[in-house]
Amino acid sequence: MNKKTPMETLDDTIHRLELEQVRARETFRNNLRQANDLVNPATIIRNLTGSGREDEEEPTTLTGNIMGLAGGFLLKKLLFGSMQNPLLKLAGLALQQGVASYISKHPEPILQTGKGLLQKLFRKKRTPNEPEDHE
Fold first, then answer.
1. Which whole-number Å values give the CA distances from 55 to 36, 58, 62, 131, in the listed order?
2. Sign of the C-alpha dihedral, residues 45, 48, 51, 53?
3. pLDDT, average across residues 65-88
């Protein structure tokens, strides 16, 4: 068994370090791609709207979240107004959060009611002689 010369040992060490550097560079690039995908505006919007989600048990969509926040805010303003009492403010905030959470988790009844109201509001008025549309 012949001993390695210092030059051969140095070459082996340099080669090993170059391989480690290539692996580290590839890992870094993969991590950078993943981070870039997470902050991509299209990905953020897709995550907010809930499209492409595997777990559909809790359908919180952007529309549901907006309706929840608006509903909670309106109910707080209707019930508590602009009271100065800190306890009533705290109760109003708790009620606002509860309503917002409930509405964002169950937006379907509100959407159906809103669609019905809009259809009644913008329904075309028929004249007595005009035949009914049968779709």
1. 24, 7, 16, 48
2. positive
3. 84
Rounded Cα distance, 106 and 71, in Å = 12
Per-residue pLDDT at 11: 94
94 lies in some domain: yes
pLDDT at residue 71 in the model: 86
If pLDDT is split at 50, 70 and 90, which confidence band does 57 have?
Answer: very low
- The Cα 43–Cα 36 span in angstroms is 10
Helix (H) or strand (E) holding 52: none
Quick one: 71 and 95 in the same domain?
Answer: yes
> Number of folded domains in the chain?
2
92 and 65 share a domain?
A: yes
Q: Is residue 116 domain-shared with residue 64, that is, in the same domain?
A: yes
